[in-house]
Amino acid sequence: PTTVVTFGTFDVFHVGHLRVIQRAASLGDRLIVGVSSDALNAKKKGRAPVFSQGERMEIVASLKPVSSVFLEESLEQKREYLLTHQADVLVMGDDWAGRFDDLGDICEIVYLPRTPAISTTALIEKIADL
Ligand code: C2G
């Protein structure tokens, strides 16, 4: 069986998140998702997520195409995570294109195009303006 692994924050879950998860799942037999920790987000984006890591993991784990979730605590641990979960395919959004090509020795790397015109930041701004 082919194991696909993908990563993300999945904060204020929206249809762009859903579509990348559906497309990632279609590339294999099971999909495992690394959900970024609150601490990793603070470092990466300089703000706390709207939903806590526990809430974000609960939402992603409940999706039909998702077999299991784990906490992603560091961007530098990708190789370790992929080996632990015996990944055959790593899927990332194309905003990360080329960034993880060095992991091509352990699995196939696929960058998928993002859904246009939707983002957590845009949603936060839209809600703030209501
Ligand atoms: N995504 C998408 N279309 C959008 C928004 C997001 O396809 N309009 C995808 C991203 O490309 C990514 C996933 O949804 O594959 C999760 O996006 P984020 O939560 O923004 O993930 P990010 O914070 O980039 O975390 O190890 C890397 C990080 O964990 C990735």
TrEMBL record:
Keywords per UniProt: Nucleotidyltransferase, Transferase
The Cytidyltransferase-like domain, residue ranges: 6-125
UniProt superkingdom: Bacteria
Molecular-function annotations in GO: glycerol-3-phosphate cytidylyltransferase activity
Enzyme Commission numbers on file: 2.7.7.39
SUPFAM superfamilies on file: Nucleotidylyl transferase (SSF52374)
The protein, known as: Glycerol-3-phosphate cytidylyltransferase
